[in-house]
Specification:
single chain, 183 residues, Oxidized Rhodanese, domain 1, 5-stranded parallel sheet, two-stranded antiparallel ribbon, 45% helix
Amino acid sequence: MKKLFIFALAAIFVFSAAGLAFAGDNPLRAKEKEINKSFAAEIPADKIIKVDQFYKVYQDVMAGKKKAYLIDVRTNPEFYAFHIEGTDHISSGDMYSIPKMIKDPNAEIYIWCRTSHRAKYVTGFLYKYGFKNVWLYSEGVVGWAKAGHPFVNQFTGKFKITEYSKKPSKAEKSFRIREFHPY
């Protein structure tokens, strides 16, 4: 009887915890959206560019016609999986280190991530810090891929993504044996 009581108590606890986890919206999520919006508000509208404009800047920087920092702010695993060839990388979680590395407040800086969420934080942060020439490439690597531009990584060299997906496909999730998987 004692075991049954303990089992019932444990089951009630598990179901209660699960119910609380799925109940209602996370109040911090709304606050995060508000804070992201405040950082995005720091970015002048004329400093937000799309893929075609960014591609032109990229070509000029790679050809040595223009001096600018091209900074991907995705996580380390995202960057090492694939990135735009020749670009810099500082994870958005380490954005505080940018002013230590780039000391000129007038330096031309372009920031992007997967879409634009993290890039808005970093770009807004740099404006708050005092930088004056920071550009948000708003379409990120998703826009770059959709435009048909190439990526690189250390294992495969240059390649193009023919279909970008935020989540792994059913076939990709169906593997039976893998030493490591990120999902």
